[in-house]
Write a structure and sequence with these properties.
The structure is a single chain. This protein has about 220 residues and is an alpha/beta fold. Helix 7 runs antiparallel to helix 8. The longest helix is centred in the N-terminal third of the chain and has 20 residues. It is globular and about 70 Å long.
Length: about 220
Amino acid sequence: MWTCATGATCGVLVITAEGRYFTAGADLTALPVGETGPGIPGPVFRGAYRRLHELFDEIEAIEKPVILAAQGPCLGIGVELGASCDFRFASGAALFGLPEVRNLAALPGSGGISRLTRLVGPHWTKWLAMAGQQVSAAEALSIGLVHAVYPVDGFAARVEQFARDLVSQPEEALGLAKLVIDAAANSDRTSARHVDRIANTVLVNSAEHRAKLDAFAQRKR
């Protein structure tokens, strides 16, 4: 459960930034000494690296919607973070890229390969990761990396409007929808349908579902 500054329970998380860039990538000067770089034993490196993986895994798994709102260029670790979110928006000033292979002789290994391939397929992941190419906001929309592109002016307001609409939806159904969708993406068709039925068994017996049905009946009358 997330708690807002006001003390209320938060129903959605929006990750955004201020200034020219959403992110130019990870700060290489801030990497832990003794845990990264040439000559570091593999187990030591992977142990430190796992902490970042676990953060993105937690974002992906939490039963609340998470939105990435890139108001400007989003490079490297920003793309990896975005791939773990449920919804991604870009302003017209945004662009996206994975410069790790070209600039660091390394992989974007915190989801920049695995999660991005699930989102846009190997075709475009190779374009971004292997070729080191960047895509504009409009191109990111066309390949399925982002859900929508909004003008720079009013970008924050459009994202907030979407977030408020999400918060207005039934919390339990919204959380289960996220879990079931993610399960379906990694399951065979029969197993996915079983999960659908199990989740809906919980929801259709809830007081919230009954209230929605009663309200619908009242509107028809």
